[in-house]
What does this fold into?
Amino acid sequence: MEDPEIVARARTEGRIVLTFDLDFGEIMALSGNASPSVILFRLRNQTPRIVTPRLLQVIQECQAQLAMALL
It folds into this structure.
């Protein structure tokens, strides 16, 4: 799928986009829409062994904001 299609599908399905691709941040900024949320990873090591713990840390740190987004 092309990036705009991924964003549209995530919005329709109420999902969060997890990505290493800077284009998603730009697409969201230009769209003016509040959803979907995008978590952009800027890690040199993009292996699951490194990414997964970082994702869990981000979720824990942003738990309150994520819960409010579901309302």
Observations:
- Residues 48-61 form the longest helix (14 residues).
- The radius of gyration is 13 Å.
- The chain has one domain: 3-69.
